[in-house]
Amino acid sequence: MSAVSELIREIDGLKPMPQIAQQVLALAEDPMADTQKIAELIRFDPYITADLLKMCNSAYFARSRTIDSVHDAINILGMDRIVDLVVMKCGAGNFSGEQRGYGLDEGALWKKAVSCAIIARDLAIRVGLADRHLVFTAGLLRDIGKVILSRFVGDRFERIQHLVAVENYSFREAEKKILGVDQSELSGIVAKKWGFSPRLQTLIRNSHMPEGAGFSDHAVNVVYVADQVCIMLGIGVGLDGLAYRFHREALKALGLGARDLQEIIAGFGDKIREVEDLIGSF
Question: The HDOD domain covers which part of the protein (predicted)?
């Protein structure tokens, strides 16, 4: 069996995204869908409801009153934020463990996933993107391929590192050379296997490499820049470290410059403790 075939087979070992998350996302993507249908889906799932209320009452939101129902949560936080929280809850299971192959301690990859999703959403608002749920979800799940690759990278790390240090490969390029697939491609394969919409599959698959879309897909650029902000802040940086190339064209395509990037980094730096409070509510 080839390494790629073995990696793809490992997808079955992941916890699949629950059906409710896929239903909520599908409705959120549909401009004709009634938001009341989303609320009903959530209300009739006691586990999601309980976890949602726990998150809504975490220090992250710092509300003066307790949120006691899905109805209250929607009225106070808005449907957009509720959809994002449901997706976060449903995606948590695969990311929280240690990713030994990348040298990431327990919880580190999940912290980066949540941080990337929040920064991506804020960026989407900043540049006026409409598909914010998709951007948030892509930011959250873009590294799902790492969960699988972590089991394979460790044994081959020296070979990958040699390509990076001696032959000027990026870490992603070195992964591809040694393993036959990189984390971007594998994340896209997972998204397809889980039945995500073609658009979400594209965002997840391309968000590590916006040059593949010629920097013309603003949603891809947003998720990519959000990930780069995480790296600059030292969030979720493992053995692969800074061995990735920053494509400034993605920033330029969004109409953003160095000052915008500094503001984004400074703004999110103040939110890190709040993000940790939110993660702690899972």
Answer: 14-210
